[in-house]
Prior knowledge:
Elements: E1 2-9, E2 12-19, E3 22-28, E4 38-43, E5 46-57, E6 61-72, E7 83-87, E8 90-96
Amino acid sequence: MSDTVATETQGVHVEERLLDGTYVLQAELPGIGSAKDVEVTVTQGFLFLRAERGMESPETRRSTRRYGHFTPLPAGAKEDEATAEYEHGVLTITMPVSVSERKTDRITVPVREPLSADKR
């Protein structure tokens, strides 16, 4: 089963999915030259990524483009087993998720109408 969620923050298009016990995040980082320009950290249940592209030209002198994104990890994610690969402008981060630690219960939260002024 795979649920894919796509988001965009600070110029980063990100797709996240959980597939066969593995969390996968793919981020498009156009113009980033190599993996050394990308930083991925995981801490306290959150994944953070940063990337920076710098260019110099006679017209602009120096131009810098920074990308950033953070996202909460699914319950049961094995943070210490995360891997990352950067190829052709796409960063792919994978991490196993322990199915036994994942909460699978679905909780429905009731939505009620607000109390009118005369009922208060």
